[in-house]
Specification:
- It is a multi-pass membrane protein.
- InterPro entries: Cation_efflux, Cation_efflux_TM, Cation_efflux_TMD_sf, SLC30A9.
- One of its GO terms (molecular function) is monoatomic cation transmembrane transporter activity.
- Its main location: membrane.
- It is found in: Membrane.
- The protein has 327 residues and is mainly alpha-helical.
- The chain folds into two domains: 223 residues, Alpha-lytic protease prodomain-like (Up-down Bundle), CATH 1.20.1510; 91 residues, Cation efflux protein, cytoplasmic domain (Alpha-Beta Plaits, 2-Layer Sandwich).
- It contains ten helices and three strands, in the order H-H-H-H-H-H-H-H-E-E-H-E-H.
- A three-stranded mixed sheet has the order 1-2-3, with helices on both faces.
- Strand 1 and strand 2 form a beta hairpin.
- Helix 1 packs antiparallel against helix 4, helix 1 packs parallel to helix 6 and helix 4 packs across helix 5.
- The radius of gyration is 25 Å and the shape is elongated.
- The protein starts with a helix and ends in a 7-residue tail after the last helix.
- The model has no long low-confidence stretch (mean pLDDT 84).
Length: 327
């Protein structure tokens, strides 16, 4: 399942990369010919998207490396690091450039403009191509949301694969940016005022900054170490409760170590009648059953603890609240 998901993400990124390279060149030429600040801002937008796709491909390739001595939990979080850099790229290469173009148009711009026909053609082609890229990202997200039996909105909020989310957001922002550029160019042509062109460029800058912020916040949470999906945590806790040797689930810790990779640490109060050998066999069996039922569990640690440990109980209360603590 993880390999299939990685293949889906790679195809989504490759489609977006190929489209963005072509669009960036067309927008740059159209921007120079038309003299439109919004068009040049959109060229910068597409350059930022192209850099983003290259970084996402790096993320996909490096995150699939197997665990080794220096990184015993694998390299899954490389995907989050490179995706964070992609978010920074959207801001620095896209938002800042668009801001400069908009400012220059408002402060130093002239009402004179070049031939806008080429810009209109490029905007139409760009909209069609970006729609293809976005539809590819939507197909992947819908498929994965359906597999998780959740809504698209919730899936995008909780997703542990930032590549598909990044492509989705940047393509949606690209379509909105093209509409803003069209309005700026059209109103500039209609009224002769460069203000509309400059404002459109500034709005593109705000759009890209907002997109970069959302993606950056997502990857920050994944890098810090986010808990696994709540539904998975509840299901694992229930299975541990159902194990005949387990009397109380004292604590349950999970962390995403990569896409479809979850580290699980469970502190369990076992039946006091169990001997040392019985306890060892129980831990091995429970871990094997959890791995078989929940393939996302990459590493499982089961620790026998007494439920009366007050220090541990206080830490669990501070982390989860009363609803998790068993009496």
């Amino acid at each position: 399942m993880a390999d299939e998901g990685s293949g889906e993400s790679t195809l989504t990124v490759l489609v977006a990369l190929g489209i963005n390279v072509g669009i960036a060149l067309m927008k740059a030429v159209a921007g120079v010919i038309s003299g439109s600040a919004a068009m040049l801002a959109e060229a910068g937008h597409s350059v930022a998207d192209t850099i983003t796709e290259a970084l996402l491909l790096t993320a996909l390739r490096r995150s699939e490396r197997p665990a080794d001595r220096r990184h015993p939990f694998g390299y899954g979080k490389e995907r989050y690091f490179w995706s964070l850099l992609a978010a920074v790229s959207i801001f620095t290469s896209g938002a800042v450039f668009a801001l400069v173009q908009g400012y220059d148009a408002l402060v130093n711009g002239s009402a004179d403009e070049g031939n806008p026909l080429v810009a209109y053609i490029v905007l139409a082609l760009g909209f069609a191509l970006e729609s293809v890229s976005l539809s590819r990202a939507v197909v992947q997200i819908r498929k994965e949301a359906a597999e998780d039996d959740t809504s698209i909105v919730k899936y995008l909020r909780d997703i542990d694969d930032p590549t598909a989310k990044t492509v989705f957001f940047e393509d949606a922002a690209a379509l909105i940016g093209l509409l803003l550029a069209f309005l700026g160019l059209f109103l500039h042509q209609l009224t002769g005022s460069v203000v509309y062109d400059g404002v459109a460029s500034l709005l593109i800058a705000v759009l890209l900054a907002g997109c970069a912020y959302v993606l950056g916040r997502t990857n920050r949470g994944l890098l810090i170490g986010r808990q696994a999906d709540a539904a998975l945590v509840r299901a694992v806790r229930q299975r541990l409760f159902e194990a005949p040797e387990v009397e109380v689930v004292v604590d349950l810790l999970t962390m995403l170590t990569g896409t479809d990779r979850v580290l699980l640490c469970a502190r369990l109060d076992f039946d006091d009648a169990l001997g040392a050998a019985d306890l060892e066999r129980a831990c091995v069996r429970i871990a094997a059953e959890l791995t078989a039922e929940f393939p996302a569990l990459d590493e499982i640690f089961l620790e026998p603890v007494p439920r009366e440990d007050q220090d541990l109980r206080a830490r669990v209360l501070a982390r989860y609240g009363q609803e998790f603590v068993s009496d």
